[in-house]
Structure to design on (256 residues):
């Protein structure tokens, strides 16, 4: 039928675009690590920061703005993991600006905001973290797409930020709302692959782990124990048992 032909064409274009994006990203990453080649580095020891700085130079040659945004986001996350928060914030902001140019990249835009908010929170800048997440919430609310899973993920980070800030009541409310959304999603029929259900189990386990943390901080140890047990069970029932966080909820079993 005509509708099927149109759908097939859209899918083919999407796959081709993803392929080109992957190739561009691969070329970019290869160029970064060439700096570690003895012939390029003249035998000098190259640190992680040296590689990241080399990637900054390589970014200037990227013509694909979508790939450039992805790489900027990853650089922001890498600098953040090294405690280089100012650099992390700078790159995250550049990625966000590029994602804003394309309405089709709204999910990545929101996830970039979450990443920036996480960096602000880790560096003790809680007001900035809250402001960034507020923009993320507004973006999801104004979207015409079904972004319930993204909203649940965003609520997880908001709860985490509130927990770090000592605002356990708001954190508790946010994580319970995230769980409610995830549970509703779990009732849906996924038409793509069974892995969607598996990924959702991992997501729910993370939510219950966060709830356990908050409940421990609220001295509600019995409820914390129950939440931790649910997290452990979700991981046990999932093919992703090897995830490192699967052991983490058991800490609450010992503490309570």
């Amino acid at each position: 039928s005509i509708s099927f032909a149109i759908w097939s064409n859209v899918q083919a274009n999407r796959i081709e675009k993803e392929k080109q994006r992957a190739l561009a990203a691969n070329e970019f990453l290869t160029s970064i690590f060439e700096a570690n080649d003895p012939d390029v580095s003249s035998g000098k020891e190259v640190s992680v920061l040296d590689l990241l700085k080399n990637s900054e130079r390589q970014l200037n040659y990227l013509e694909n703005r979508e790939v450039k945004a992805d790489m900027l986001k990853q650089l922001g996350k890498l600098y953040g993991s090294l405690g280089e928060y100012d650099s992390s914030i700078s790159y995250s902001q550049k990625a966000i600006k590029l994602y804003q140019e394309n309405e089709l990249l709204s999910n990545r835009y929101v996830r970039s905001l979450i990443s920036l908010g996480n960096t602000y929170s880790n560096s003790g800048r809680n007001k900035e973290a809250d402001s960034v997440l507020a923009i993320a919430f507004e973006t999801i609310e104004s979207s015409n797409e079904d972004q319930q899973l993204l909203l649940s993920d965003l609520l997880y980070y908001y709860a985490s930020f509130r927990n770090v800030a000592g605002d356990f009541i708001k954190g508790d409310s946010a994580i319970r709302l995230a769980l409610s959304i995830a549970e509703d999603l779990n009732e849906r029929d996924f038409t793509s692959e069974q892995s969607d259900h598996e990924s959702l189990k991992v997501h729910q386990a993370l939510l219950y782990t966060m709830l356990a943390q908050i409940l421990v901080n609220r001295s509600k140890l019995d409820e914390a124990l129950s939440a931790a047990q649910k997290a452990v069970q979700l991981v046990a029932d999932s093919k992703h048992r090897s995830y490192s966080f699967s052991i983490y909820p058991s800490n609450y079993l010992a503490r309570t």
